[in-house]
């Protein structure tokens, strides 16, 4: 089944200001954390039997700019649940009003958001990120090229080339240190409240400007030192250090253990 083109969705994203086109809805298409919230809506359905389907449309018209809206999930469900109230004419007027109120020039990052929206529409996987991709992450490796491959019931964005997540050994070691920190933090003597593992992921993102897998490989040593220091500062880390017990394996030790 065909889908809208990437340039079409880029244009749609820019023309609606990156927000849901439903009147009065402030919901962004892309959340502050980079999550794709919005959805691509076909004014005239893309499949036979769908709401407002027009058998006389050709495929180019069906997937074209004039037949598409960007909506939040709530309002996408709303218009499809009430096709009599939200006719083709009503939706075209909605589209025109949203564009008139919010039109913005295209930005470089719109290409990524457009690709992610298409992935969400078609259950695709974004692979081979040779151009280096990240969303709203100033400390992460940034985008250039996308290669899309269809998958069933799955949308996934793989770590970009040049990031820690794209290097199996270094990704494994950083994850080992994160898990080690969580283990030590949970086991700290005298802890009165449960430890929340999300804290370390949030701390890394705040410190390095990106999710840990998207941090540049050039900062691998810096990220490792950050995590090792966090481990040493835990209550259990301090206790074990006074007893002369090792707190974690070095990168070289980790590789020897995991390459056997």
TrEMBL record:
Q: Record's InterPro entries?
A: HNH_nuc
Q: What is this protein called?
A: HNH endonuclease
Q: Which organism is it from?
A: Acetobacter indonesiensis
State the taxonomy lineage.
Answer: Bacteria, Pseudomonadati, Pseudomonadota, Alphaproteobacteria, Acetobacterales
């Amino acid at each position: 089944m065909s889908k809208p083109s990437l340039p079409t969705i880029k244009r749609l994203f820019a023309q609606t200001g990156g927000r849901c086109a439903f009147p009065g809805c402030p919901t962004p298409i892309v959340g502050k954390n980079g999550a794709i919230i919005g959805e691509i809506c076909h004014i005239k359905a893309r499949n036979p039997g769908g709401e407002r389907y027009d058998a006389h449309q050709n495929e180019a018209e069906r997937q074209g700019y004039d037949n598409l809206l960007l909506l939040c999930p709530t309002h996408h469900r709303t218009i499809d649940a009430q096709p009599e109230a939200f006719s083709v004419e009503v939706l075209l007027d909605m589209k025109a009003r949203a564009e008139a109120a919010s039109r913005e020039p295209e930005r470089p990052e719109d290409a990524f958001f457009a690709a992610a929206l298409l992935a969400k529409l078609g259950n695709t996987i974004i692979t081979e990120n040779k151009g280096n991709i990240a969303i709203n992450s100033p400390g992460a490796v940034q985008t250039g090229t996308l290669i899309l491959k269809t998958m069933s019931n799955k949308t996934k964005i793989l770590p970009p080339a040049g990031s820690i997540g794209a290097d199996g050994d270094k990704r494994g070691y950083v994850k080992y240190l994160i898990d080690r920190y969580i283990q030590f933090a949970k086991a700290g003597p005298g802890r009165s409240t449960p430890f929340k593992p999300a804290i370390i992921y949030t701390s890394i993102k705040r410190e390095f400007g990106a999710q840990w897998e998207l941090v540049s490989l050039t900062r691998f040593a810096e990220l490792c030192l950050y995590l090792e220091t966090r481990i040493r500062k835990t209550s259990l880390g301090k206790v074990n250090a006074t007893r002369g017990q090792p707190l974690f394996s070095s990168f070289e030790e980790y590789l020897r253990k995991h390459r056997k």
